[in-house]
Structures are given as structure tokens and as C-alpha cells.
Design a protein that fits this description.
6-stranded mixed β-sheet, single chain, 30% helix
């Protein structure tokens, strides 16, 4: 058994398969899940695990070269907006409907138990060298 890092075997395996420019959607419990991408559903109950916990865990494992979120997060969920701004200085904001369209191209969807609106981000993988 792994001693550290992500212990969920489905998530750990999915992350190991990602390559440069692959996209990962990290989403709240209410985000529509697109058909096609591999889905790792971590939601246990409302708020567990939180968007912040899952995002920070993923960022410890991934190289991210870009991030896109819904512009509506600024007004509807200031805590998530501050979290995203702090983690991604070059954060791209698009309308929520556009984020849903873009998420169809994700290779992996990680669903959190977050129950606040617009706690969603599309990550574009980079390389470590």
C-alpha cells in the first residue's frame, strides 16, 4: 500500500495515465458530468471531501500549465474564487455554459463532495521537465 500521496487507487491510476495537455475537470457535486471521460467520484456527503482538499491533493501530484473556471464563481462563490486565484495566477474565466462545453474534452473528471456553486476548474496538464 502507498505510504503517501493519493491513496484512492482509481484516482492514483488515472493520474499516472495523464500526459501533456490532457485535461482534468475537478468539480462540485452539482456539475453535470460529461459522457466520455473517466470519472473518479470522491463525493461522500455534502461538503466531503471539499473542493479545496481535492484540488490541493491533485496539485501535489500534477504539473498544471493552465486552468479555466466559470466567471460566475466571482459573484456566487467568493471563497472558491479566492482559492482559484491563489492557486492559478493565470486563471482563465469563461461563462459557466462554456466551461461545461469545454469539460467534454477532459480525459478525467474528479467529482468532489463540494456543495457550493461554481466550485469547478478545468486543469491542463503540463510536464515536469
Amino acid at each position: 500500500m502507498k505510504k503517501a500521496g493519493i491513496l484512492n487507487r482509481q484516482l492514483s491510476g488515472a493520474l499516472a495515465e495523464l500526459g501533456h495537455t490532457d485535461e482534468v475537470l475537478v468539480c462540485d457535486a452539482g456539475m453535470p458530468i460529461p459522457a466520455g471521460p473517466r470519472v473518479v467520484d470522491l463525493a461522500f456527503r455534502a461538503g466531503v471531501p471539499s473542493f479545496a482538499e481535492v484540488l490541493d491533493g491533485l496539485l501535489a501530484e500534477l504539473v498544471v500549465e493552465g486552468a479555466t473556471a466559470a466567471a460566475e464563481v466571482r459573484g456566487a462563490n467568493p471563497a472558491a474564487a479566492a482559492l482559484l486565484d491563489g492557486r492559478f495566477p493565470g486563471l482563465v474565466l469563461v461563462p459557466h455554459e462554456r466551461l461545461k462545453e469545454l469539460s467534454a474534452g477532459a480525459r478525467l473528471v474528479v467529482r468532489t463532495g463540494e456543495a457550493r456553486p461554481y466550485a469547478n476548474v478545468l486543469l491542463r496538464c503540463g510536464v515536469f521537465f
